[in-house]
Specification:
heterodimer, A: alpha+beta, 5-stranded mixed sheet, two-stranded antiparallel sheet, B: alpha+beta, Aldehyde Ferredoxin Oxidoreductase,  A, domain 1, Aldehyde Ferredoxin Oxidoreductase Protein, subunit A, domain 2, Aldehyde Ferredoxin Oxidoreductase Protein, subunit A, domain 3, 6-stranded mixed sheet
Chain lengths: 94, 573
């Protein structure tokens, strides 16, 4: 049996989790490796609501994220102060 | 217009400041200190000077232009120091046409003086009834005598006792002293000059004039549009404050926990911006609070206790960290009380929290014991021997208690971002002229400077170049009187930076390019490094404590691995 993922939501998603009566972290089982985009569809969370997905402490664009069972995942909406978007690796363009 | 005050004979002179034309904020304060203070002088000697200066845009209606700079030789670091603060003072001094107030000499007797500034001039007045008061009581007495419309900057007992972590507390829009010129112990320098408070009344002043008012308004609109449309300045900061960073840094594995022994804190969510905002809103406090005239970001808050009484305001990420995760404490009410005590006794909440964490490492109290931490803060307020040790900062606390893991650079405590997991900040901590200071590399214009924004926070590549450009751009923003948080938006919206350039040009009739203003930033760093070298603090001091290079930081199990030789290239420009 696969290990569930541990999912956190920050900023506005913190409230969304509450409204859906999800714990934060929310424990979720996924059957196969999914991209961040696919995870958002599964969760019924709009793409625009998420700038970055942390997977095991590393920042990825949703399209680049690969999530598998046992991962620690966090959804970060737009709104992280500018310097940290660069310093934490959110900015991916050369 | 400049005022020069000699505390030895209480004389006041008005000057034009011919030497300092075209400078504002940090560029001005650092030029004055570098020019007029003997670098080897003791910070509390007659040779040190304390300056209060306005920025290039102070007193205008520019968005978020309410900041001002204090400068002196720091008793904490021995380096030059610029301490930047919000509240209402910068705007009022700007409207009064004041570019700088230079305080020199030492008083002949231990008395409590105030500097009172209005359109009638600057007056040095004795107010013995203020002696021995903490900051909130000092503010109350001054407001009852001079009215609620004045701006106040004052010191508490920590400043009077010349503790090296003493701050200067400034009043916000509601008249509460929730804004601090916090870092580097400039409150102690103020105490050594016998000055308990500076107050400003801008009644009767006219609008600040512009060489080209239409161009100023156009530039102002560009910056305002950037701030009002970017998600960080229009949504995240008003809703959650800077404390929004707790969960993000924790997730990145860079939230220093229990004196930098881990990068993750199990209680992070309890002290993060989301929980902070929920608590404030539930109790009828205020999020989205602006601390200074013209602030449209409104990242400040008013925090109430369970009974609905105001405890503190301006509850920043760095304070929630230093008095929270760093001490293993996740109770927001206890952290809020500690923040209030720091503001009231008049000590820097970053330096003080880090010092208490170092003391906890030594076994003076247990990590997680918030009541013990509160008692240690009271020791500072009472000025007991233990309180004086803590109030002298983390480095001294570490030496007194024989602690090896002491997170300081050039004597100043490292703030809330572990440099092993956020290496770019580590480069700034190691090399900035100020001693460890996250705001020294805050302003990001990476794309505009033609520097790729892409770095991996856990890898060394590109971090030196990034830090160099951040430090240069920050030194410029710090010179304008703008809140550094405007940088949060102008990374993505180039029009915002154009607006800043256009406003500065229109105010003074200049025709400078962004390159010219960045050259101003470079010159600030050159001035500051010249002073530090003369004070005996050379490039050898530009490094992190060795434990960062040796101890693995969980959860990523990384060390700070940017070679010293690379750090030495930061100022190659």
């Amino acid at each position: 049996m696969s290990n569930p993922i541990e999912l956190r939501g920050f900023m506005g998603l913190f409230k969304v989790f509450k409204e859906r009566n999800w714990s934060n972290p929310y424990i979720l089982t996924i059957e196969k490796i999914v991209t961040g985009d696919e995870l958002l569809i599964m969760l019924e969370i709009e793409k625009e609501q998420v700038e970055i997905i942390f997977v095991n402490g590393k920042a990825f664009l949703p399209s680049d994220a690969r999530i598998q069972s046992g991962d620690r995942v966090a959804l970060v909406p737009p709104g992280t102060p500018g310097p940290y978007r660069v310093l934490l690796g959110f900015v991916k363009k050369e | 217009m400049f005022y020069r005050i000699n505390m030895a004979d209480l004389s006041v002179k008005k000057e034009e400041g011919a030497l300092y034309q075209g400078l504002g904020g940090r560029a001005l304060s650092s030029r004055i200190i570098d020019t007029e203070v003997t670098a080897t002088a003791h910070a509390f000697s007659e040779g040190n000077k304390l300056v209060f200066v306005t920025g290039l845009l102070s007193g205008t209606g520019a968005p978020n232009a309410g900041r001002m700079s204090l400068g002196a030789k720091s008793p904490l670091t021995g380096t030059i120091k610029e301490s930047n603060v919000g509240g209402t003072m910068g705007h009022k001094l700007g409207r009064l046409g004041i570019r700088g107030i230079i305080v020199e000499g030492l008083p002949q007797a231990e008395k409590a003086y105030i500097l009172r500034v209005s359109s009638d001039g600057l007056f040095v007045e004795e107010m013995p009834e203020l002696k021995g008061l903490d900051i909130y009581d000092t503010v109350e007495k001054l407001q009852s005598k001079f009215g609620m419309k004045i701006a106040i900057g004052c010191i508490g007992t920590a400043g009077e006792n010349r503790m090296a972590s003493a701050c200067v507390g400034f009043t916000d829009m509601e008249g509460a002293p929730t804004r601090q010129a916090g870092r580097g112990g400039l409150g102690a320098v103020m105490g050594s000059k016998g000055i308990k408070a500076i107050i400003a009344d801008d009644s009767g002043t006219k609008m600040v004039s512009f060489v080209d008012e239409a161009a100023f308004r156009a530039g102002s609109k560009k910056l305002a549009n950037a701030l009002l449309t970017h998600p960080v300045t229009s949504q995240a900061l008003p809703a959650y404050g800077t404390d929004v960073l707790v969960n993000i840094l924790n997730e990145a594995g860079g939230l220093p926990t229990r004196n930098f022994s881990s990068g993750r804190f199990e209680g992070a969510n309890n002290i993060g911006g989301e929980s902070l905002a929920a608590t404030i809103n539930e109790r009828g406090g205020k999020t989205g609070h602006g601390c200074s005239p013209g602030c449209i970001i409104r990242c400040s808050q008013i925090y109430k206790d369970k009974q609905g009484e105001v405890v503190t305001g301006g509850f920043e990420y760095e304070s929630c960290w230093s008095l929270g995760a760093h001490l293993g404490i996740d109770n927001l009410d206890d952290i809020a009380l500690m923040n209030r005590l720091c503001d009231d006794y008049g000590v820097d909440s970053i330096e003080t929290g880090v010092a208490i964490g170092v003391a906890m490492e030594a076994g003076v109290a247990k990590f997680g014991d918030s009541q013990a931490a509160i008692q240690l803060l009271h020791e500072i307020g009472k000025g007991t021997p233990l309180g004086r040790i803590l109030g002298t900062g983390a480095e001294t606390t570490g030496k007194v208690f024989g602690v090896r893991r002491v997170p300081v650079v050039k004597g100043q405590a490292i703030p809330a971002y572990d440099p092993r997991a956020v290496k770019g900040v580590g480069v700034t901590y190691a090399t900035t002229t100020m001693g460890a200071d996250h705001t020294a590399g805050y302003s990001v214009t990476a794309n505009i400077l033609g520097v790729g924004g892409k770095v991996d926070p856990l890898k060394p590549e590109g971090q030196v170049e990034l830090s160099r450009n951040l430090q240069i751009a920050t030194a410029f923003i710090d010179s304008t009187g703008l809140c550094l948080f405007v940088a949060f938006a102008i990374l993505d919206i180039a029009e915002g930076l154009e607006g800043i350039v256009e406003m500065c040009n229109a105010r003074y009739g200049w025709d400078k390019s962004i390159g010219d203003y960045l050259e101003m930033g470079k010159q600030v760093l050159r001035d500051e490094r010249t002073f530090n070298h003369s004070a005996g603090i050379s490039d050898g001091a530009d490094d992190l404590p060795d434990f960062f290079r040796k101890e693995l930081l969980p959860p990523h199990n990384v060390v700070f691995d940017i070679p010293k030789e690379e750090l030495e290239t930061v100022f190659n420009f």
